[in-house]
Amino acid sequence: MKFRKLILTMASVALISLCLGPAMAADNIKIGYIDPLTGPFGNVGDAGQKHFQYMVDMINAKGGVLGGKKFEVVPFDDKISAKEALVQLKNAIDQGIRFVTQGNGSSIAGALIEAVNKHNKRNPDDPVLFFNYAAVTPAFTEEKCSFWHFRFHAHVPIKMDAISDHINTRPDVQTVYLIHQDYIFGHSCSAVIQEMLKAKRPDIKIVGDTFHPLGKVKDFSPYIAKIQASGADVVVTGNWGADMQLLVKAAKEAGLEAEFYTFYGGGLGGPSGIGAAGENRVKQVTEWHNNLWNEQNQPADKDFYVGFQEKYAVGKDERLEFYYGRIRTMMEMLVKAFNKAGKAEPKAVAYALEGMEHDTYYGKVVMRADDHQLYQPMFISTMVKAGNDKVPFDVEKTGLGWQTDMRVETETTMRPTVCKMKRP
Q1: 3-state DSSP assignment of residue 181
Q2: Given 56, 190, 255, 424, which is the most exposed site by the fewest CB atoms within 10 A?
Q3: How far is 323 from 321, CA to CA, in rounded Å?
Q4: DSSP characters for 281-317?
Q5: Which range, of 6-10, 31-35, 360-364, averages the lowest pLDDT?
Q6: Nearest 5°: phi and psi at 247?
Q7: Rounded distance, CA 103 to CA 108, Å?
Q8: Contacts of 157 (CB under 8 A, 6+ apart)
Q9: What percent of the chain has pLDDT over 70?
Q10: First and final CA of the chain: distance in angstroms?
Q11: Does residue 407 register a pLDDT over 90?
């Protein structure tokens, strides 16, 4: 009899666990992470997922949001394909996920924005909210702006404005070569920088304007040969992921002397790809880099950076760098937005985000209500020798680290928008 009671008790406990387990998991606020996790850009997507997980773990350890709810990152592999991204969005929605994030590939972001808009129009009482952390085609917060889309990254004109301002301070730059990936983002980069250089430095000659297939070029040496032949003083590129790594690697091997102004030179694999050849020659425009804490006396940021490296240590000769400062900003703002909304409901969270101001270690950022574009301080920095008082940290064990050349204040980055937001 006692044995039978024990069996019944154990069965009851198991049944309760089965019932409560899914309920407790469902109580988490799930964010669908839709990015490449396999293929040529799989390492970039994996790094982004680790950035989000690092932030989620910190937030959850501090009590989460809404009185104890926890964030959960749910990964979906889009294989850098817009078609696959739409399949994964549907999978996320079918799993009850109503908050999604993506960043790698403007063609994919555009497809997701359109799909989210269609879903929300068909299901006004069950909407989905899209947080864009890296896709920077201007149209997403201009003519194609959507109430259901928020961008936490500086778009192309903001970044090119900073790059062209810096070039404008350099009379030694007389010739510029442009090389970009052949899709909507790359063409936007080319058009914007040409327009800005024409206005600020009409004396500069554009000696090349090249586009190459996204994620398909294995050997960039023919492209580097064209750059060498052009005699360009500087190269401007929006390349990212493997396309950035292979481009700078080919430049290094060919001994190209031109300087690089990049969007993503500090991205995963970029610094190690170019190595010592990048010293004093490779620049980037970003919202954060790994030596800002030293330049602006923010030791807590140093601890944050070191903590990420320790958590995601790779090996003796490799190191995963914290890179996406905007992911930290985004997650900190989401905590405030969910708590302000008082519930994990997409429309309420969207209204809470609109117009939000947030103080970061390096200044105030603003999510403009007009277009759902985040405006934040930007920095032009250069790869220089590290391991000294000015530049204590190197990147990817190259012996080189980032040092700020120019800071652009939040107010200066703000630009007019043609967005005509339609709100529910």
Answers
A1: strand
A2: 255
A3: 6
A4: TEEEEES--TTHHHHTT-HHHHHHHHHHHHHT--BTT
A5: 6-10
A6: -65, -50
A7: 8
A8: 138, 192, 196, 415
A9: 93
A10: 63
A11: yes
Query: In the predicted model, is pLDDT for residue 415 greater than 60?
Result: yes
When the pLDDT of each residue in the chain is averaged and rounded to a whole number, the result is: 92
Residues 66, 334: Cα–Cα separation, whole Å: 11
pLDDT given at position 20 = 41
Single out the residue of 31, 218, 51, 184 nearest to residue 108, CA to CA: 184
Quick: pLDDT tens for 184-197.
999 999 999 999 99
Model pTM score: 0.89
Give every CB contact of residue 22 below 8 A, 6+ residues apart in sequence.
Answer: none
3-state secondary structure 201-234: CCCCEEEEEEEECCCCCCCCHHHHHHHHHHCCCE
Burial (CB < 10 A; 0-12, 13-18, 19+), residue 368, is middle
Beta bridge partners of 329: none
d(CA 178, CA 199): 17
Please tell me the distance from the alpha carbon of residue 193 to that of residue 175, in angstroms, as a whole number.
13
The answer to whether 293 and 299 are in contact (CB under 8 A) is yes
